[in-house]
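Box 3.1. Reading complex inputs
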Amino acid sequence: MTSVIDAAPARRAFRLTRLFQGLERVVVPGLLIAGWEAFARSGVLPPALLPAPSAVLHALGDWVFGFDETTQTYSGHWLRDAMASALRVFGGFALASLLGILAGVAIGWSRLFEKTLEPTLQMLRPIPPVSWIPLAIIWFGIADKPAIFLVFLGAFFPVLMNAIHGVKTVDHNLVRAGAMMGANQRQMLTDIVLPAALPSIFAGLRIAVGSAWMLTVTAEMVAVKSGLGYVLWDSYYFLRYDIVLAAMISIGLLGYLSDFGLKAVMARTLRWQQTTTVQGRAG
Amino acid sequence: MAAIELRNIVKVFSDKRRGRDLLTLDNIDLDIEANDFVCLLGPSGCGKSTLLNIIAGFEQATSGRTLVDGKQVERPGSDRGVVFQQPTLMPWLTAIDNIAFHLKLKGVGKAERYDRAMEFIDLVGLRGFEHHHPSELSGGMNQRVGIARALLMNPSVILMDEPFAALDAQTKLEMQEELVAIWQKRRCTIVFVTHSVDEALVLGNKIVVMTKRPGRIREAVNFGMPRPRDITSPEFNDAKRRILSLIREESTRLAQAS
């Protein structure tokens, strides 16, 4: 006996569910923005102190495309400012990733490095990166270098800690299996320990890229005369809160994009790992 | 010359936290002939896995000599294939890459690696799954990959540490049958650790019954029942009764001693 099932209604219901799931994500931000716009227009606070979302969007638009010079000297300069910040993030983050992974794997793998290197690094770790600003300025002056140095400090330790953890928690039996198949010490490191530690290393990189953005902006507020953080602080002096907010949004967006890119690289590299959430498998 | 010679193996673990030593293996003396299928049978904690790890070279005996093909065992090596209790595959490699991992370590090119690994994919019945990752395969399939990986090295002995313990009853039966078929086809020496009397009798042609802590050899029983073995036959049951009585004597002796 065969039974025929008409799949069309099910498919329609599925499409509706998908639509609803799309809406789900925008309900809370939509309500927040609408409330903010209404509150700003009500006149309880002067518009200079709390610009409406529409005003912020206007400022951001002019900053990016330069259509009516609302943002004065910044008009049309967004790309230049964003690139300045992004390059600092990239420089500091790349250096921190390289050294963090190297040092972390060395400490996790070898007792010698653990004994000689780790105590010093663990003592430096609790010092907040921003407290290095005075030294960074006298060492490197006012330019890219102090910012990259700060980004490096902020990004290095998350990478280091996660790399150490990743190497130390490699399944002991995988190492035994490697030895059984005749791996020498170098192969054990490159063919077994390193790939096994990759998920942990990527977790460190994702934390690090967030810290990198935070520290770029901090550095730009004090020690650099360009970039999104500089625009933010400069606009604050001129009481242009619409530009301050536009800068905050830009930083949030670029930070999100960096994490998104990193996640894409991670998904490709760690294809073998099944991504599951508590509620079920995700994509 | 036997394939594996164990001479007066003693293993003492020092329990540092409690400041005392634990005698795990007490004077083990055993010869395993080439092409034997030997089952080490004993209760949990009798040191049977420790003994296997000593042969594999993962652990060192406190005293005594371990010889494989007349050579002293000092470290793990590809002359002794190990199948672990858990599959212990590299999760980032596909089935075929896991099986051919030994060849990769030796620097063999990809085409030849895959070519040689396919033979073992077929042997363990995994054709069609060679490019799956361990996370996409069932426990039984992963254990097949583990067995193929050990066989590919063409080792003189294969050491198996309760490899089917985590499988469901039906898969376990299938795997046992297949393992016997592989052993008959390829003529290799297998040392198989188990705590199940039935499993030992289905698989082994020599069953080494071990005593509980400290691990000693109670008796090595030769069991030449023709294969395939019917586990409901009188012959099988007689053998089972004999093994069980050996184990029971041992428990009574322990009970009286305490």
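In summary: The interface with chain A takes residues 56-58, 75-78, 80-82, 84, 86, 88-93, 101-102, 104-106, 133-136, 149, 153 of chain B (CB under 8 Å).
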